[in-house]
Specification:
The protein is of the alpha/beta class. It is built from 14 helices and nine strands.
């Protein structure tokens, strides 16, 4: 089976690398030619366009930065749906809204193709190590066909249900990421104020009820305050939390902690800290504290 991969950013690069190194027959495309050339040196095939990848792949995976790009790449005039091989399985690893996943799935179905929404979690480290959580929505037979490739990139690959279920699960995950990230930042702000060493606090919290992945991940970054130029920039979380807020409004759900977290994350964007690490939410808390 020939695999196509579109999008070699912070996440896609590690994912595609695992496919190549684990023996998949991979063709890659991204807008930066030098990145394609790197993969050709690894043993992948290079491509010059989305259409070219689409024509060659039985399974086509994409990891893209935002909703608009996903819609364009999958359903646009030069998109995957228009050019994919008959019977191909298309997979979107991007974090989008449920309406976008359903739109892409319907477009694929009209062209005799299968579509899976399969967002990911685990960050660039998980992508590089092949240990991602991959949450998949769509037809079970299409999932079974795609699973050998997904297993090369993830340690926890789950079929969540019909179209949109994978996207819904990712949004649930991102809700917790945003809330836990800000909660950890508040805890670290209190630690700093009380003179408690953050690295020591993290070691204690690992075996206490206050433990969370965001405490463990963000603690060392916070201790060094190396927030700039992160592989997990806050702009990504800001995009995801905006999607969650819109979904909550549609579903008439009150999500008070999510909305408070959104306020902190949005402040980082307003201050121009878009490429800062999500742990940098501590800086907003510190600034708000000075105003008290």
């Amino acid at each position: 089976m020939r695999v196509g991969f579109i999008g070699l950013g912070n996440m896609g690069r590690g994912m595609a690398t695992n496919l190549v190194k684990k023996g998949a027959d991979v063709t890659v495309f991204t807008r930066t030619k030098s990145k394609v050339d790197e993969f050709v040196k690894m043993g992948a095939r290079g491509s010059g366009s989305v259409a070219e990848v689409g024509r060659s792949a039985d399974l086509l995976l994409a990891c893209l930065p935002d909703v608009k790009t996903s819609v364009d790449v999958f359903t646009g005039p030069d998109g995957i749906v228009k050019h994919a091989k008959a019977g191909a399985v298309l997979v979107d690893h991007s974090t989008v809204d449920m309406a976008t996943s359903k739109l892409c799935a319907e477009a694929a179905k009209r062209s005799g193709l299968s579509f899976l929404d399969a967002p990911i979690s685990g960050g660039p480290t998980g992508a590089a190590n092949g240990t991602l959580a991959i949450m998949v929505g769509g037809d079970r037979a299409a999932f079974d066909k795609a699973k050998p490739a997904l297993d090369m990139m993830g340690a926890n690959v789950r079929h969540m249900g019909p179209t949109g279920a994978g996207t819904a699960m990712k949004l649930i995950n991102q809700l917790l990421v945003s809330v836990n990230c800000v909660a950890a930042a508040e805890a670290f702000a209190l630690a700093n104020s009380a003179g408690v060493d953050i690295n020591t606090a993290v070691e204690v919290l690992k075996v206490a009820w206050g433990q969370s992945r965001m405490v463990e991940r963000n603690g060392p970054i916070t201790a060094t305050r190396k927030f700039e130029d992160s592989a997990a920039p806050v702009r990504n979380l800001a995009k995801d939390i905006a999607i969650i807020a819109s979904l909550a409004k549609t579903q008439k759900l009150a999500l008070p902690l999510t909305m408070q977290s959104k306020s902190i994350i949005d402040d980082m964007i307003k201050k121009g800290w878009t490429e800062y690490d999500i742990a940098g939410s501590l800086m907003v808390i510190e600034e708000r504290s000075k105003a008290m």
